[in-house]
Amino acid sequence: MYRVDDVLERAHSACGQGTVYWLGEGGRSAAAASPTSPLPVGQLWPTLPVAQQHALEPLAQATGLDVHDPALVVPACDCSGFVCWALGFGRKSDPAPYTDAAGWIYTDSIWADAMGAGVRFERRARATPGALVVYPKAGSGENYGHVGLVMEADADGRARLVAHCSAVNFKVAPFDAIKITSPEIFERQPRSIYAWCRTIVV
Fold it and tell me: Mean pLDDT over residues 72-101, rounded?
């Protein structure tokens, strides 16, 4: 089991690595030095829809990534991969109440467990350092769910700073998907909740 200080330290250590946001990447092994997976962007780029290439090319140029180089490999992660790694376990396990049917831990499965059985993730009314803040895709009106780690909370039990991996983070210099920011992205989503991972020791 990890302690809260361990989780916060791991979250801090993942920042500033130039991580690219890529859905489904990262968080495979808690023993890894970072939450990221090596992503062969140069090989994947030609397979992306043309409209997506046009949308992403200016950002790639701004970050100095030559996406037309077939040898280009970058560190990549998504929000669930980052959080699972910081909490000290891989995002893939045997199927459980806190995973999907294939055993993957992701935003909707975290949210559903916290709102239901609470097998691994327990809903909390107040934010504390080390807690999660999460909303699901289902019923949110968003294209994706999102999850982050509360790094600081105020006296009223609201998150003040959150570490999270997102495409929005990557679009703003310094270009890194994993950053510690205000909780605004979560506060504007009505389905956001706080949750505690039962494997973490206070």
Answer: 97
The mean pLDDT of the chain is: 96
Question: Rounded to an integer, what distance in angstroms lies between the CA atom of residue 85 and that of residue 148?
Answer: 12
Report d(CA 145, CA 150) in Å as an integer.
16
Q: What is the arrangement of strands in the sheet containing 74-77, beginning at the earlier edge strand?
A: 20-21, 74-77, 37-39
List, in sequence order, every beta strand (DSSP E) within the chain: 2-3, 20-21, 37-39, 74-77, 121-124, 132-135, 146-153, 159-165, 178-181, 193-197, 200-201
Chain centroid, CA 32 distance in Å? 16
Q: Are 77 and 28 in contact (CB under 8 A)?
A: no
Residues 6+ apart with CB under 8 A from 133: 127, 147, 148, 149, 150, 159, 162, 183, 186, 192, 193, 194, 195
pLDDT of residue 4: 98
Residues facing residue 201 across a β-bridge: 3
pLDDT confidence bin for 59, thresholds 50/70/90: confident
Output the six-digit token pair for 103: 């055993």
User: pLDDT at position 1, please?
Assistant: 79
Would you state the pLDDT for residue 96? Answer: 97
CA angle 65, 70, 74 (to 5 degrees): 45
- Which residue, among 67, 64, 85, has the nearest Cα to 148 in the 3D structure? 85
